[in-house]
Automatic annotation (TrEMBL):
Keyword Hydrolase: no
Pfam entry (one): YccF
InterPro entries reported in the protein's UniProt record: Inner_membrane_protein, UCP028777, YccF
Domain Inner membrane component span(s) in chain numbering: 5-56, 70-120
Superkingdom of the organism of origin: Bacteria
NCBIfam families: PRK11770.1-2 (NF008740)
Organism: Micromonospora wenchangensis
Lineage start: Bacteria, Bacillati, Actinomycetota, Actinomycetes, Micromonosporales
Protein name: Inner membrane component domain-containing protein
Residue intervals passing through the bilayer: 7-25, 31-52, 64-83, 89-110
This protein's UniProt keywords: Membrane, Transmembrane, Transmembrane helix
Keyword RNA-binding: no
GO cellular component: plasma membrane
């Protein structure tokens, strides 16, 4: 029940809808460019994760190999570093207040997802 309430507050106050829309727009652009479709799929995964982060976590896919690692290097150079930096700065800013600490932690959870998204999947936390 706590996770549900935190996710609801995240949607309303924490910027979850704005983050998800941003990742969704990035996914649409990646799908239009055809060659970047794997990045679009990763961006949709991030949109889903950023929309409802509490109670879920990111784990490595067992079948991901060298191609996803190489694609992640390209992702980091093009988009990952500034997305991760924005989540890091937002997390620090949110942790300044007591009420914002859970939302800051959620932003910190999104840093590795934004930095290195390919070859990972979102699963329910234990």
């Amino acid at each position: 029940m706590i996770r549900f309430i935190l996710n609801l507050l995240w949607l309303i106050l924490g910027g979850g809808i704005v983050l998800a829309l941003g990742y969704f727009v990035a996914a649409v652009i990646c799908f239009v460019l055809i060659i970047t479709i794997p990045f679009g799929v990763a961006s949709l995964r991030l949109a889903s994760y950023s929309l409802w982060p509490f109670g879920r976590t990111l784990v490595a896919k067992p079948g991901a190999g060298v191609p996803s690692g190489l694609a992640n290097v390209l992702w980091v150079l093009l988009a990952g570093w500034w997305l991760a930096l924005s989540h890091l700065l937002a997390g620090i800013a949110l942790c300044v207040t007591i009420i914002g600490i859970p939302f800051g932690i959620a932003n910190f959870k999104l840093v590795p997802a934004a930095f290195w998204p390919l070859g990972r999947e979102v699963v329910e936390a234990p």
